Prior knowledge:
- It is a single chain.
- The protein is an alpha+beta fold.
- The protein has one domain: Roll (Thiol Ester Dehydrase, Chain A).
- It is 20% helix and 31% strand.
- It has a five-stranded antiparallel sheet with strand order 1-4-5-6-3.
- Strand 4 (100-111) and strand 5 (114-122) form a beta hairpin.
- It is elongated.
- GO terms for molecular function: fatty acyl-CoA hydrolase activity.
- InterPro entries: 4-hydroxybenzoyl-CoA_TE (IPR050563), HotDog_dom_sf (IPR029069).
Amino acid sequence: MSQEQPNPPSLPPTEAIQTDPDLRATTENWFEYPIIAYPHQTDYAGIVWHGCYLTWLEEARIECLRSLGIEYADLVNLGCELPVIELALRYHRSLRMGMRAVVKTRMSDLQGVRINWEYKIVSPDGKETYVTASVTLVGIDREKGKIYRELPPAVKNALVKLRI
């Protein structure tokens, strides 16, 4: 016996993710990373498990860097770790098994050793928003295990490519 359940109320779009107005002209382009919600990423109801969204954000950021010729492993080999120190995520709609979506990401700001990224997970046509997020990374000297006072020039030069 099947009973129709009412759709849960949708949340209004968030405007919580702000960018630095000085960088707006150089960070308008989003990198797009297509995804598919596979069965192993869902619960018994076929809804994507919340932790999968974090994985997709990370994958999109790494692939964005790779698209510019920046291998994350090379940054690590330079002695620089970029761990997440802050994460804000807002779920707007659930993705379900078999659905396709696009993770859009861009570096919104580079402040000293803090690297801010913003994200949107949207339908392929861009009409539905599933998740919005922001992530802040910080540069850490891998050898000393301490936060850099300033990013190494090679790392900074690589990241500046995102602003062009």
